[in-house]
């Protein structure tokens, strides 16, 4: 999932860059008296792509889904699953059978009760081949899910069953230590079949063609517009915990625009970059965090044959000075990558060492222009190419445009390399990336749960997100063994994930760039925002307090 973006609310506010992973950021005002007007004005750096959980692939879409829908669990501030629609869970059969009792007072915004069959329908719909859900592979933990998704078995063979209206049974193919965390992610939420039948292919393409069972309803979104609203959902079972009545969202690709709106008191927050951060570090409204997401440069071997050559890929990586990028260009607290998997994604079960430190491959993220030129010459000789004229596709946000210009300058220091920048709206870019319609592109990945596998499986040969054409048999074997053969052996599993990361970076299957920081100004009378264990805002009781 390209999880970038964010929102704000009682349910999963995105872009609320307030605190470090697994922590709670609190306002300087300790008063608990609520302000009379509970309405926030928020900005986003990209447009909303989808309100259909089976079609969403980016962070903003998933965050909106977390605000407007609800599943069996929500993650608390420590990243631990807490009951939401589930009231009781029993795990049997050696960790392969989950039986859930569901609350009986949950309703959809169309008045229908939320029942076990809504989960069965949702999971079957996501896995149905005709749905073509890019994230369907996350459900492969469920019995027969892969066979169903590939059209080899019927939907009814899927290991999920409704035993009456409020009892749900799930059969897994193997014990999965992080399965409850997955259940807190929107892909595993229920879907109202009556709504899908009513709206057909239009379901989830606008606020009017979607129904909701979460704390908020999406309103005033036509599917392509740059404004929308999250309005308190009066049918939400726990509506008493929702204090905000409305969040007005506005897309501003430029932090200059959002900064001006903030200073004019037309918005309640703004992302910051470069000089803006330096000018506001001492402000009582300044907040900063380092989410567990990474930014990278992908080279499409299917479009540029020369990228099949490892020496060419390594040359491109060695030509990039990541420290200069984060310190002199972005200047926002972002950290140069040590690999594809960022910091905050787990620690060695025996030694406690962080994954990104243990799996660090220095040569895969270092800057050495001399060696880069040598490897490029060697690589081009092997491929028979005289020169490389490539297009770098990026979104139209300030940060991506700055990064693209830096990369263009860096890569054109290599002999016979010319880079043309192509800037497109973010929603259009992710569509192009999903279709493999690019030569070079800036891509981001945000964790769903704090485990290295959530990053590494992106580059498995059969991953729907691996559109670069890079394949490595050893890499695939290591991940397969880690997730299947060694699922109940934490130390062995960890060692294989570390080895897989090293294979990916040594072969330069992708070019890691940086772990992006989020710096922001947020009105000091907005109550604390809570982040889950993966550094993603999960929402609850976010609100205005009286000054």
Structure commentary:
- The chain has 17 helices and 21 strands.
- The protein is α+β, with helices and mostly antiparallel strands.
- It has a 6-stranded mixed beta sheet, sandwiched between helices.
- Helix 8 runs antiparallel to helix 12 (369-383) and helix 16 runs antiparallel to helix 17 (490-506).
- The two termini are 39 Å apart.
Summary tags:
547 residues, 4-stranded mixed β-sheet, globular, disordered N terminus, alpha+beta, 6-stranded mixed β-sheet
Q: Number of DSSP helices? A: 17
Biggest β-sheet, characterized?
6 strands, mixed
Strand content: 15-25%
Any idea what the shape is? globular
Strand order in the sheet with the most strands: 15-19-14-18-16-17
Query: Termini separation (Å)?
Result: 39 Å
What is the SS-derived class? alpha+beta
Estimate percent helicity: 25-40%
> Which residues sit in consecutive blocks of at least 5 with pLDDT less than 50?
1-31, 530-542
What radius of gyration results from the CA coordinates?
23 Å
Number of strands: 21
User: pLDDT average, as an integer?
Assistant: 89
């Amino acid at each position: 999932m390209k999880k970038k973006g964010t929102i704000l609310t009682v349910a999963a506010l995105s872009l609320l860059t307030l605190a470090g992973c697994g922590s709670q950021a609190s306002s300087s005002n300790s008063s608990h008296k609520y302000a009379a007007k509970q309405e926030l004005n928020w900005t986003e750096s990209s447009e909303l792509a989808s309100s259909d959980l089976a079609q969403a692939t980016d962070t903003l879409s998933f965050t909106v889904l977390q605000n407007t829908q609800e599943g069996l669990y929500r993650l608390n501030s420590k990243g631990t699953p807490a009951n939401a629609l589930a009231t009781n869970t029993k795990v049997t059969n050696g960790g392969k059978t989950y039986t859930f009792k569901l609350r009986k007072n949950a309703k959809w915004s169309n008045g229908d009760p939320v029942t076990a069959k809504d989960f069965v329908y949702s999971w079957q719909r996501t896995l149905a081949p005709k749905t073509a859900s890019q994230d369907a592979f996350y459900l492969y933990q469920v019995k027969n899910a892969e066979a169903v998704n590939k059209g080899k078995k019927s939907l009814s063979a899927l290991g999920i069953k409704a035993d009456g209206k409020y009892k749900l049974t799930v059969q897994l193919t193997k014990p999965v230590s992080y399965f409850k965390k997955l259940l807190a992610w929107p892909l595993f939420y229920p879907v109202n079949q009556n709504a899908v039948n009513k709206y057909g292919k239009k379901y989830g393409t606008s606020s009017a063609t979607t129904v909701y069972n979460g704390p908020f309803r999406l309103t005033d979104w036509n599917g392509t517009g740059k404004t929308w609203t999250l309005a308190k959902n009066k049918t939400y079972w726990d509506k008493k915990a929702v204090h905000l009545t409305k969040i007005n969202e506005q897309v501003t690709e430029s932090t200059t625009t959002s900064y001006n709106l903030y200073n004019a008191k037309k918005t309640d927050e703004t992302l910051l970059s470069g000089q803006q951060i330096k000018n506001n570090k001492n402000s009582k409204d300044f907040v900063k965090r380092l989410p567990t997401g990474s930014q990278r440069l992908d080279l499409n071997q299917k479009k540029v044959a020369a990228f099949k050559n490892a020496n060419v890929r390594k040359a491109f990586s060695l030509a990039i000075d990541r420290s200069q990028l984060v310190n002199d260009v972005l200047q926002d607290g972002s950290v140069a990558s040590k690999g594809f998997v960022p910091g905050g994604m787990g620690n060695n079960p025996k030694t406690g060492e962080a994954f990104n430190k243990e799996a660090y491959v220095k040569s895969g993220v270092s800057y050495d222009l001399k060696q880069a030129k040598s490897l490029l010459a060697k690589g081009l000789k092997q491929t028979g190419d005289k020169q490389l004229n490539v297009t770098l596709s990026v979104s139209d946000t300030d940060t991506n445009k700055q990064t693209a210009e830096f990369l263009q300058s860096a890569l054109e220091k290599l002999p016979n390399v010319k880079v043309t920048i192509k800037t497109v709206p973010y929603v259009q870019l992710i569509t192009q990336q999903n279709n493999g319609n690019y030569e070079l592109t800036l891509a981001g990945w945000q964790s769903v749960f704090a485990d290295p596998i959530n990053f590494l499986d992106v580059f498995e040969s059969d991953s729907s997100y691996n559109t670069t054409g890079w394949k490595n048999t050893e890499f695939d074997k290591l991940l397969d063994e880690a997730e299947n053969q060694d699922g109940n052996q934490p130390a062995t599993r960890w060692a294989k994930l570390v080895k897989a990361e090293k294979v990916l970076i040594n072969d330069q299957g992708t070019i890691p760039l940086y772990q992006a920081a989020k710096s922001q100004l947020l009105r000091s009378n907005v109550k604390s925002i809570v982040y889950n264990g993966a550094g993603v805002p999960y929402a609850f009781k976010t609100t205005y307090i009286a000054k």
